[in-house]
Structure formats: C-alpha cells, structure tokens
Write a structure and sequence with these properties.
The chain is an alpha+beta fold. 64% of the residues lie in helices and 13% in strands. It has 2 domains: 84 residues, OB fold (Dihydrolipoamide Acetyltransferase, E2P); 235 residues, no CATH class. Strands 1, 2, 3, 4, 5 and 6 form a 6-stranded antiparallel sheet that branches. Helix 5 runs antiparallel to helix 11 and helix 11 packs across helix 12.
C-alpha cells in the first residue's frame, strides 16, 4: 500500500510540475518579436449592412471589395459602429463573402481613442472552436477519467511548446532539425510520463520512441538529396524567404517536418508495446529477457502495419484535390508518382513508416532489458525469503525456481 501511495504522489507531483511549466510558457514573453507586428486591436463584430457595389464577378470567382457596416461586440470599443473593408483577390481559398447578420473577426487600426480603419479579417469562429474543444475534453474525461485529464494537459503542453519554443526558435536562426529533435524529446517525455506515470512503462516507451524518431530523422536526412527536391515544396515555406528569412534552410525545415509528422504515431505505438510488455512481465515474472522481447514484437507487428496505413491516409488527404485534378487530366500514374509534390509525400510516408516499423523492435529491445531486470530482482527476493521445512539452503530454492512444476512438487515429498 505504501508503494502505491508513493507512486501516486510521484505521478501527481510530475503532473503538477508540467502544469506549472505550461502556465509559465504561456506567460513567458515571446522569444521572437516580429518586426512587422503593429499595434492593432482585434475584436468580434456583427455585420449590420453590406455594400457589394464594388464586387465584380469573373467566372466562378469574385474580385473587388465589400463595405460592411459593423457593430463591435467586445474589446475597449464595444458598442461602436464602424465601416470595415473586405478585399477580394479572386482566390476562393482565401476570399470571404459576408452577409448581414454574420459575425466577423475584425482588425482595427487606432489613433488615440479613434478608430482610423477596420478590416474584416474572417468569419468569427473562436466560440464554436472553443465549444468543440470543451465538448471533446468533457467526453474524453468522462470516458477515461483522470487519464483523460492528463492527456489533455500533455496536449496543451505540446501546443504551447510548439508555438512558444519550437517555431520561434527556428525563426531566430536555430537549426530546424536539432530544434525539432529537442522539442520531440521533451514532448514525448511529457506525454508518456504524464499518461503512463513516472515509472518503467513510460521510460521504456520513451526510449523506444526516441530511437524510432532518431532513425526517421537520419533516414530523411540521407534520402532527401537523392530525391532532388527543394525545401520550398513545404507549404508556405517560400513565403518565409520573402518575409526576411533568406538564411532559413528550407531543406532542413522539410526534414524536420518529416519526423515531426511521424512522431505522434511513433509515440502512440511505443506506449502500446511497452504497456503490453509490462503486463506480461507482471503476470509472468518467470519469462526470460528473450521471451519478453518476443512478446513485445508479437504485440507490435499488427499495430505497426495498421499505423503505416494511417500515416499514408493522413499525408494523402493533404493532396487529395491535386490527385483528383491529375486523374481528371488523364496523366499516367508513373508521371503522377514522379511529380515533386507526390515525391515529397512518398518520402514523408515511407520514411515515417520506417520509424513506425522499427519502433516496435526498439521498444521490445529496451523493454526486454528493463523489465528483465525487474524479473531478476523478483527471483532474488524469492531466494532471500524462501524457507523449507527440510532445512535446504538458499541455493536449493534457486534450483526450484528454475525447475519444472513436477520436480517442484516431488521435492516437497518426504
């Protein structure tokens, strides 16, 4: 009972520590301050009237600008009415059309206490996003209890770490690969030790996951040059060059994106294998290290194969529309497979799959050694406490541990 209380306290202290670190990161000043940042006010507004006289239709797209009469709903200027502009550039993916009654996200330019300009940036979605997240959190906690709460904390820590540390670090000039690797090491550790507890199960999963991520990063670095791809293949990366980051290495940024994308699935698979091995070693402390490793491999095989498909579907969905365009044009599959966008996805999927396939044997190898040490300790404990009426020595009790059940029974007969 005392050991369980100690473990519970240790886990609780770790969770509280992560909570404090997360809060500290949220309150921490930004590591990177953009030279393009302006003093602007952002708030929600209600569209009262719309003027579309300057909007022109060109085929299926529209260009021009809307003039919106908007009432501000929050912020220091709540209750005021302003005229906001909405510029249309003829791109359906970025253009927004507003109607009377819509809620909009506004960016206000102010001078003193006066609003000099207002831009309708987008439809206001923050409330529905917050509601959806709250509903998900309630369902997760309701179904999994305390484990779900810890999972949400680990997720929040991950989001804050990426936004406040990883991305600013790369913008500040730190190497994308090493910065991303450091972030993955920390995020994986926090996630696994928060959910599985501070113990051997999380340690085995963490070490196995890191080995899988390191292999993925090494393979991506080795295979990227032969593919003859440019790092600008990563969405919006070229915009970074035009924004004053000419020295940013887009190739290394792409490599970092490869193992970052696979790291979540690698962490997931490693904890599954580690938890299964932990349960096997508890139920069967007599198993050897080799047998424990075989058990881990047996558990990891079906998981790795399904995870490969999951990874492929996640990457493929990003270019689903592009694939449909190529198919509609009658372009042969070999030409499609040779396109730079598709080649980049092949590189991501296959290299990420290598990490998924190898994380199971990596975790099984680490788990066999660490869980095997617990088995050795269990045997030594039995040797020290074994007492027999016939006066046999401790050496005799060790032989009984290694003997088959039939010989054990016969040894107790007079």
């Amino acid at each position: 009972m005392f050991a369980r209380i100690q473990i519970l306290n240790r886990d609780t202290v770790f969770v509280l520590l992560i909570l404090l670190v997360t809060c500290a990161l949220l309150l921490m000043p930004n590591l990177y301050n953009s030279p393009y940042a302006r003093e602007e006010e952002r708030c929600a507004g209600q569209v009262l009237a719309v003027d579309d006289s300057l909007v022109k239709q060109f085929g299926i797209v529209k260009a021009g600008s809307q003039k919106l009469q908007v009432r501000l709903l929050d912020g220091p200027y709540a209750g005021r009415e302003v005229v906001a502009s909405n510029v249309l550039i003829g791109k359906m993916e970025s253009d927004k059309m507003f109607r009377s009654g819509d809620k909009v996200f506004l960016v206000l330019t102010t001078l003193g206490n006066n609003i000099t300009a207002a831009t309708a940036y987008d439809h206001y979605r923050l409330k529905i996003e917050a509601l959806l997240i709250a509903l998900f959190a309630a369902v997760l906690i309701g179904f999994t209890g305390w484990s779900g709460a810890k999972a949400l904390l680990a997720f929040l820590f991950t989001v804050v770490t990426v936004w406040k540390v990883l991305l600013p670090g790369v913008l500040m000039g730190y190497d994308p690969i090493w910065t991303a690797l450091l972030a993955v090491i920390v995020i994986a550790g926090v996630t696994l030790f928060s959910i599985a507890g501070v113990g051997r199960t999380a340690l085995v999963a963490w070490l196995g996951a890191l080995l899988g991520v390191f292999l993925t990063a090494a393979l991506a670095s080795f295979l990227f040059p032969p593919f003859r791809l440019h790092g600008a293949i990563l969405a919006y990366s070229e915009t970074l060059l035009y924004s004053g980051f000419e020295n940013l290495n887009l190739e290394r940024l792409f490599i970092a994106a490869v193992f970052l994308g696979a790291s979540g699935a690698v962490i997931d698979l490693s904890i599954d294998v580690s938890a299964a091995m932990n349960e096997v070693s508890r139920k069967r402390p007599d198993l050897s290290i080799k047998e424990l490793m075989k058990s881990g491999l047996y558990v990891g095989r079906p998981m790795a194969t399904t995870m490969v498909t999951t990874l492929f579907m996640a990457y493929m969905s990003e270019y689903m529309a592009l694939l449909m365009v190529l198919l509609s044009k009658g372009i042969p599959p070999l030409q499609v497979a040779n396109l730079n966008f598709i080649s980049a996805e092949v590189l991501k999927t296959v290299v990420g799959s290598f990490g998924l396939i190898t994380v199971a044997p990596f975790t099984a190898l680490v788990g066999g050694y660490l869980y095997g040490k617990r088995r050795s300790g269990h045997e030594e404990s039995l040797e020290r406490t074994a007492k027999f009426p016939d006066g046999h020595t401790i050496q005799r009790s060790k032989s009984l541990l290694e003997a088959p059940p039939s010989s054990r029974e016969s040894s107790h007969q007079p």
